[in-house]
User: Fold Probable GTP-binding protein EngB from Mesosutterella multiformis.
Amino acid sequence: MSIYESAVFTVSSSKLDNLPPASVPEIAFAGRSNAGKSTAINTLTRQGKLAFASKTPGRTQLINFFELATKDKVTHERHPVAYLVDLPGYGYAKTTANIRSSWSDLVGGYISERSALLGVVLIMDARRPFMPSDEWVIEFMRNRPTAKMVWLINKEDQLRTVSERRDVIAAVKKRAETCVNPVSVQYFSGLKKTGVEELRATLDGWLGL
Assistant:
């Protein structure tokens, strides 16, 4: 069993000052509302309902923490290794200005200030990568130049041709070369379960597993 299958929900918070102690490395998942963040976490951990996947964009307005841990073979006690952190979806046009502002403060504040942040998994729709809110997260990460990123080009099954998939990934890789952060790029599909092992290998490298 991989470490990701040990994931359990621990806490949700709508405020930065209510987050758990920054005691172990944290890998955050960021993306536009309905880009597939929750599905990516569920697929990674092989737990279909671990992260709430709403069909209504903009519904999730909390930072959610999922603990990864090893278990003592004798006592069965859990020993935390890391957190997967599900950040609120952003960029949904039908939300109010106040809600969009609070999301910006919450997500931006977490990325800028959270000392335990190891890296960010940025999920983008393969049909619409680099929307303004995606660029906003990438720009915020410039303030954390040692933090890593992996860009998941999600829903690649929605791209109709091989040439279209090739062109999209080439454009994304070219954009990644302009970033100050270490960035890796890959296709991903929660529906077809493609790219899951590649993502696990990347995160293993981040965590030194």
Summary: Residues 97-113 form the longest helix (17 residues). DSSP finds five helices and seven strands in the chain. The two ends are 13 Å apart (CA to CA). Strands lie at 8-13, 26-31, 63-71, 78-86, 117-125, 148-154, 183-188.
